[in-house]
Amino acid sequence: MSILMKQILLFSLLPISLLSLLLLFRLPNHHHHIQHDPFSPLSNPFPPPPKIAYFISGTNNDGPRIFRLLQATYHPRNYYLLHLDRFASDKQRDQLARMVTSVQIFVVGGNVNVIEKSNPVNEEGSSPLALNLHAAAILLRWRKDWDWFVNLAASDYPLIPQDDFLHILSFLPRELNFIEHETNITMKDYQRIMEVIVDPRLYLQSAGRMFMGDRKRSMPNAFRFFTGSPHVILSHKLVEFVVLGWESFPRTLLLYFTNTRYSHKSYFQTLAGNSEFSHTVINSNLRFTNVDAPSAEDHQSKRPMDFKRMLGSGAAFAGNFPVDDPIMDIIDSVLLNRGKGMVAPGAWCLGRTWGGRVSCSEWGDINILRPGPAAKRFEILLLNIIGSTSFRSSLVDQ
């Protein structure tokens, strides 16, 4: 059911203060070199915004959540790959595909694709890593002009409109990788590194149970082990390095992590930390983490405070939202300006207004971004992350 997208170039007008982001990097970046027409008063002196390749995955009964997340993050410049794992039925996959094709802008844009064949996933094993690598390979084959790969779960949700997100990222070198990682490995981490596990969902159609070997292996000495969040924002070049494997290291590392518990929380961290990409890593995945998640008893009373913290964080995404969490409606209303059942509007959106919300039933000038207050909050977050030694990647010094 694949529908290909016409090439779109999108330019943004950025505040000059964002130029300070570029001064913090010494990475060569040819994407920011633009030829200007001295006789054209309308020429744009700023770099074009990037294209994001989103991979959104879920499990049984997650189709509506994935579709809502698609609507909340949609922009005709990006690419979207959707997946329901084997715990979901074929009927649910068909329903998700029909929901996508029922929206005219998705069909016209041709930038949304649903993986027809399900993949089995065991969160504790190595099959989640295999799923992410599979998705990255599909996105590389589908389109080659995207800049960053972003993996999202059905329980995630954006905290920033895409106009603001692309607007700010246009000032960053495309070589950067946002990978949250830990250098201090705990005893629990050491234990799972030495354990040898077999995840049968890598090679069986049925959902077999994971089992552990009766012997433990030694700690690796050919590379240093890192761990962190499974949610990453990877550059196109790093994804090519992993999938195309022009060096043997990604394949060697993959053989090791195939038999490692929770490998999707360590593979990209370890790969970047032991390769040429160590200088490109920012120790953050631009997500809001709620360390004081409310319990079931006080769930409703603490949610407004959570929203204020989300808003103040300047983060691009947050996760672990319960199904139909009321705070997502607040995010839609206050941050995304998204009406129920509608795509989050951007400058490309025109159409009728329903209850103060733009329906995006018609397309305007897709060469324009119209960022709002969220762009400034996101800019401040990036400046703090990049300027703080506590958030800089510690991989370089290893």
UniProtKB/TrEMBL annotation:
Alphabetized UniProt keyword annotations: Glycoprotein, Glycosyltransferase, Membrane, Transferase
Location within or outside the cell: Membrane
Domain of life, per lineage: Eukaryota
Cellular component GO terms, alphabetical: membrane
Iron is among the record's keywords: no
Keyword Transmembrane helix: no
GO molecular function: glycosyltransferase activity
InterPro entries given in the database record: GLCAT14A/B/C (IPR044610), Glyco_trans_14 (IPR003406)
Membrane topology: Single-pass type II membrane protein
Pfam families registered for this protein in UniProt: Branch
PANTHER family xrefs: BETA-GLUCURONOSYLTRANSFERASE GLCAT14A-LIKE ISOFORM X1, GLYCOSYLTRANSFERASE
Listed name of the protein: Uncharacterized protein
